[in-house]
Specification:
Radius of gyration: 17 Å
Shape: globular
Number of strands: 6
Distance between the termini: 30 Å
Oligomer: single chain
Structural class: alpha+beta
Order of helices and strands: HHEEHEHEEE
Strand order of the largest sheet: 3-6-5-4
Strand content: 15-25%
Number of helices: 4
Length: 162
């Protein structure tokens, strides 16, 4: 669970995700491999929470968002398919090591700031924006659009089509 997510996202994490983990030993082994106990501050609720940092496969996540991006591209632009490359930047991944401002986390934080600025005035598209919406910016890169996917108002992914 990303602590930036809204209440809907937190509920999803504690109910549906928990049930999925109970049903699948393979998913449990993959998702809960070497958890690291952490305390985080949730500014929206002004609470310090105990949680676990989990190791994820960033390449597998990028492939998932590549597929989602291609589907959204087809839907949004009414085109059969996008055949170029998609670069997925997963803004909510952090390295929970001792140096939260280190070489991995600083660029991630900077990317989130830049994407937030680039998409700040762009229309949000989605029937239920508290669960999911996306934005399309045609001005980030000269010839290609960029999309920002936002899940539960806190887990953001920027897709650059090229």
């Amino acid at each position: 669970m990303n602590c930036d997510n809204n209440e809907i996202g937190r509920t999803q994490a504690t109910t549906k995700l928990a049930r999925a983990l109970l049903r699948s030993d393979g998913l449990k082994l993959a998702a809960l491999n070497n958890p690291v106990r952490r305390h985080i501050y949730d500014p929206s609720r002004r609470l310090i929470l105990e949680t676990a940092a989990l190791t994820v496969d960033p390449e597998r996540l990028k492939r998932c968002f590549d597929h989602i991006g291609r589907g959204l591209y087809w839907h949004h632009f009414n085109q059969k398919r996008f055949t170029g490359q998609i670069s997925a930047h997963i803004e909510f991944l952090v390295n929970p090591g001792n140096d939260l401002f280190g070489e991995f986390n600083h660029p991630q934080r900077r990317l989130r700031e830049l994407a937030s600025h680039a998409f700040s005035s762009i229309q949000k598209i989605g029937a239920n924006p508290s669960a999911f919406y996306y934005q399309v910016n045609h001005n980030v890169i000269e010839l290609y659009p960029a999309m920002r996917l936002v899940f539960y108002e806190g887990s953001c992914i920027t897709l650059v089509f090229g």
